[in-house]
Amino acid sequence: MQVFETISQLRTFRAEQAAAGRSVGLVPTMGALHAGHGALVKRARQDNDVVVVSVFVNPLQFSDLGECDDYRNYPRDLEGDAKFLELIGVDAVFAPRVEQMYPSGTPLVWVRTGRMGEVLEGASRPGHFDGVATVVTKLFTIVQPTRAYFGQKDAQQVAVIRRMVADLDLPVEIVAAPIVRAADGLAESSRNQRLSTKERDQALALSRTLFALRDGAFADVTQAAAALDASEGVKLDYLTVVDPKTLEPVAAAARPALALVAAFVGPVRLIDNLLLD
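== Pantothenate synthetase ==
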């Protein structure tokens, strides 16, 4: 496995793969890798000749362009991530520094995501999806993947990127992999590392509420949201049901429908979602 820190190194590698006619699967990550990332890599390995994983904590998608504790405290362990990726059969890791991705500082030209990026997570984190769309477009341009793999846990991100690829005619296939959950139902997330043992138990309320909503245990979304907000240690941001393609609100009884939740458990903001089909 090769680890590249510069764009020129990665492009040289990619040109070699193109000359050999090999397909390339890209798994974009911010590091702190877990079983969910492993599932994405496994799927990419099945579909492609070559697998590239990017490891880059993108400041543009954090508050104040990274001048915040959430960015500063985001777990970083490139050495551990590289060992994990080598064990599961990744061919190349692209791990650029911020100065490599944004050599002139904060870019003047961004990819804007419009209303899809302004609701839900975008309402709670203004500018977040513009930062995501901008860095993902850069990664697509640098790596030129045949396919790119994203986890369904970030359902809004998947919807936004699918629409971005369609609207900008980007030559890449977007593949969404199902959420990987621990045996107790908690969605795998890099942020779980920041939860204490007690907070991790409290965080189970998110997935329990989603599954109960799907199974008809609540009269409506409002009742489910109230129950979750009353759970010990949980401070609800939102619980809503939307169309999975447009992110427009729909009734919980509508199909297809996607329930999305965001909440703080202790100091950590967690998200989860579940298709209600």
